[in-house]
Amino acid sequence: MKLRVVSSKKEITDLNRNEQLVHLAFRASNMDVMNLVQSCPRLRAVQIPSLMADGNSIEDTVKKLQRETKLSEDLIRYILKEQVMA
Asked: How are beta strands 3-6 and 45-47 bridged, if at all?
């Protein structure tokens, strides 16, 4: 089995129906997860980033990242809201 990495919402519709393992590399909403489940009926596991898996709001995530890094609050908010990928 291979792990398929999905880096944007647009890629969900392009997935093969037989995908079984998927990693969401963006801040997925509940609707995105539902669309993924509908697009891939044989899905066995979905991996999401830990900051998003905790159910934290953007504000909570910003505070946590500010404690752990030297990034400004505005930059962190921009990265989270615009889904900027490194």
From this structure: unpaired
Tokens 């752990």 locate to: 68
Residues 61 and 53: their CA atoms lie apart, in Å, by: 11
pTM of the predicted protein model: 0.58
CA–CA–CA angle 22, 28, 30 (5° rounding): 105
21-24 and 3-6 beta bridge pairing: parallel
Q: Is 6 left (phi over 0), alpha (psi -120 to 50) or beta?
A: beta
**Model confidence at 86: pLDDT above 50:** no
pLDDT tens, 35-48? Answer: 999 999 999 998 88
Where do the domains of the chain lie? 1-48, 51-86
Residue 53: name the closest of 26, 73, 78 by CA.
Answer: 26
